[in-house]
Amino acid sequence: MASETTGGDDSPELGSLQYHKKTGRPVRRSAGKVTLQAGYVDSRVIEEECGEVIESSSEDDEEIIQPLRLRKRKRSVSLEPPPLDDIIRYDEPEGMSDEEEPLRKNDGKGSPVVLQFNVPLGFHGPLVVKLDRALLQRNVDGEAHGFRMEQMKKELQLRTKGSTSRHMRAGNGRKSVGFMDLPAELRNKVYRHLFVNSDFITLPARHLCRSGQFLSTCRLVYSEGCSVLYSENKFLFDRNMNTRGTFWEPNPKEIGYKDVRQFLKSIGPENLAYLRDVKLVLEDARPATTPYLSHDQRRYVNDQHLIDVLRLLSLAKLRRFSLALYGRRSLARSDIKFIGYVQRIKADEVVTEPVHPTTWRYSPKISPSLWPDLRDSMSRKNKLYVKDE
């Protein structure tokens, strides 16, 4: 212990005072024998047994003891879950329905071939496809065929026999001839005599005196008659300046383009595709019939019913489309929304003209620089119809 300490001041009460070489801590030893208390262990004994010097801070140290910082425990990386196995179902396919039973009876070669597909995860399955064995048969030359020729001949004979029996009279056995037995050329002449008009079919109706009750004869007459009615007539859609309203409304409102819109919606998209020649009159509302609207709201470019009419006319395959512009202000490029709906309409020929050819000093209310661009964008590049020579 003398080798690890240095000499120092001596005190008669405390004995000789020495300092530790490494720590500089004073080591005091009593002059007499030191009696240790029970349960007390001197640090010197621990140093001798362990061979290490126990260092502790003294009161003379000027260093500030920093508080211990608890380290945040790092989260361990979680293991990746094992991959999910594909769902394999072995559900038995359902039995044959009433509509599939004739396949088994007519074929006579067993049940139809059943293919089951195990659909992967995320889809509803399984997908069961039932095929008739007749579809899988091949002839001697190896060419695939769906139905046997003999069955087709038998079905054709049965149909011919059934149609003949319907036209036979019960008394003398003579065949009765009806309208549908006439050639298609004669039927078209009847349709033209009933439905085709040399003048425009106007809406609102002015001189419309023909009736379409003949179309309710049967489905075939309706299909053939509508193709003549809508394709070989010229239609004029004008603004209705009259007012209409229910009895509880104090002020009836102007009809405008409501009837035109209702007409185009009622004929359906199939008959819309038959339209060939259409003339549309664009005119503002009158202040006398629309006192509840402002000056800007009376313009046809802001009429929602007219915009819906333009949207419906875009479904037609027009040969000729005429515009009659009677607005108080000229149609300009600033009316972007309205011009966008007009450009959806496509025709082989797009012109602007008055409602009646006798109109004096007609000048369309459209910007001169706008009309050529609008006409070119609406004109169909590849013509659908051949001009009559």
Provide the fold topology.
Elements: E1 5-6, E2 10-11, E3 15-20, E4 26-28, H1 43-50, H2 101-107, E5 113-117, E6 127-131, H3 133-136, H4 149-166, H5 184-195, E7 201-203, H6 219-231, E8 234-237, E9 240-244, E10 253-256, H7 258-272, E11 277-282, H8 304-313, E12 318-325, H9 336-342, E13 347-352, H10 370-378
Helix pairs in contact: 5-6, 7-8
- Choose one word for the global shape: elongated
Helices, by number, come to: 10
Share of residues in strands: 15-25%
Strand tally: 13
Mean pLDDT: 75
Notes on the structure:
The chain has helices at 43-50, 101-107, 133-136, 149-166, 184-195, 219-231, 258-272, 304-313, 336-342, 370-378, and strands at residues 5-6, 10-11, 15-20, 26-28, 113-117, 127-131, 201-203, 234-237, 240-244, 253-256, 277-282, 318-325, 347-352. With 389 residues, it is an alpha/beta fold. The chain has a domain at 181-378. The strands form four sheets. Strands 7-8-11-12-13 form a five-stranded parallel β-sheet, with helices on one face. Strands 1, 2, 3 and 4 form a four-stranded antiparallel β-sheet that branches. Helix 5 crosses helix 6 and helix 7 packs parallel to helix 8 (304-313). The longest helix has 18 residues, at 149-166. It is elongated, with a radius of gyration of 51 Å. Residues 103-107 and 139-147 have low confidence and may be disordered.
Notable traits:
389 residues, alpha/beta, 4-stranded antiparallel sheet, 26% helix
